[in-house]
């Protein structure tokens, strides 16, 4: 069964003083396009995490995020008092020189100044490392499950559209013989209207056969039917078939376009337009397939 490149996964693990949340989402892309946001204390694990994501997800525009929340009163953020003292003295001097009153909520203003807060990056122990790795694995697994569900929906859509094109292809057959007879009749009728015109009937038959053969669509019908079957077979091969399905849909488009250019009849052209509509929906969604 095929898989979609669209997915989302989330995992949360709790430690005695910290909660770690891992989120990962993916959209369609021709190759793996990975963007990560990881807290400074986990930077040494970034390459391992990126390698794991690349190995398991293979393709897609992937956004990976890790963030931490302190539990209880423990926090790594500290007020940088010496920096605040420096800012306060500068504000006080400016107030005296300019004759402007000091701000009423001075402390709030000072806390928003650069470097007013300092964040320490404490050493992480093995338990925290294992907890993070577990969260990463769980988030990726949930994204993979999401991709499988989306893939099942896409496969159902493709099967429906392929079936519609195959049905429309059969609807062409009743008009095929009628079309040839009409074309032949129009040519003979046009020749009969030319006064005092004589022609070699044998040569005329040869030219007629040559012209009608150019309008014959049996090869296009046969190739399109094979492409439809090959598309369904390829979907059953599992994930990693997205590019191949895209190539097959392009070949289907070429045969449908040739059918349209050769049809030379309003009824057949309407059928071809409906085929193109079904195929366009396939080509639009096949971009999301792994």
Automatic annotation (TrEMBL):
Which cofactor does the UniProt annotation name? a divalent metal cation
Tell me the keywords, alphabetical order: Endonuclease, Hydrolase, Nuclease
**A single Gene Ontology molecular function, please?**
RNA endonuclease activity
Domain named Endoribonuclease YicC-like C-terminal: residues: 174-289
InterPro entries assigned: YicC-like_C, YicC-like_N, YicC/YloC-like
**Which segments does the entry list as coiled coil?**
none
Domain Endoribonuclease YicC-like N-terminal span(s) in chain numbering: 2-155
Q: List the NCBIfam families hit by this protein, alphabetically.
A: YicC/YloC family endoribonuclease
Regarding protein family, the annotation reads: Belongs to the YicC/YloC family.
| UniProt xrefs under PANTHER family | UPF0701 PROTEIN YICC (PTHR30636:SF3)
Q: What name is this protein filed under? A: YicC family protein
């Amino acid at each position: 069964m095929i898989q979609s490149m669209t997915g989302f996964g989330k995992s949360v693990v709790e430690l005695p003083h910290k909660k770690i949340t891992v989120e990962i989402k993916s959209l369609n892309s021709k190759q793996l396009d990975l963007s990560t946001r990881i807290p400074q204390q986990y930077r040494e694990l970034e390459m391992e995490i990126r390698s794991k994501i690349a190995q398991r997800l293979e393709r897609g525009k992937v956004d990976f995020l890790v963030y931490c929340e302190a539990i209880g009163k423990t926090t790594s953020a500290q007020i940088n008092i010496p920096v605040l003292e420096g800012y306060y003295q500068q504000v006080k001097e400016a107030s005296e020189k300019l004759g402007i009153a000091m701000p009423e909520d001075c402390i709030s203003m000072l806390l928003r100044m650069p470097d007013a807060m300092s964040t320490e990056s404490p050493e992480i122990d093995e338990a925290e490392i294992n907890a993070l790795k577990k969260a990463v694995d769980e988030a990726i697994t949930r994204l993979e499950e999401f991709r499988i569900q989306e893939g099942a929906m896409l496969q159902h859509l493709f099967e429906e559209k392929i079936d519609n094109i195959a049905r429309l292809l059969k609807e062409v057959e009743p008009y095929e013989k009628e079309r040839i007879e009409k074309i032949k009749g129009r040519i003979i009728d046009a020749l009969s209207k030319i006064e005092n015109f004589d022609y070699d009937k044998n040569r005329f038959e040869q030219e007629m056969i040559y012209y009608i053969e150019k309008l014959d669509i049996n090869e296009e019908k046969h190739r399109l039917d094979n492409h439809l079957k090959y598309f369904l077979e390829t979907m059953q091969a599992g994930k990693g078939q997205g590019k191949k399905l895209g190539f097959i849909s392009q070949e289907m488009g070429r045969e449908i376009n040739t059918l349209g250019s050769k049809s030379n009849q309003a009824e057949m052209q309407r059928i071809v337009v409906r085929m193109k509509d079904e195929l366009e929906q396939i080509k639009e969604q096949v971009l999301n397939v792994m």
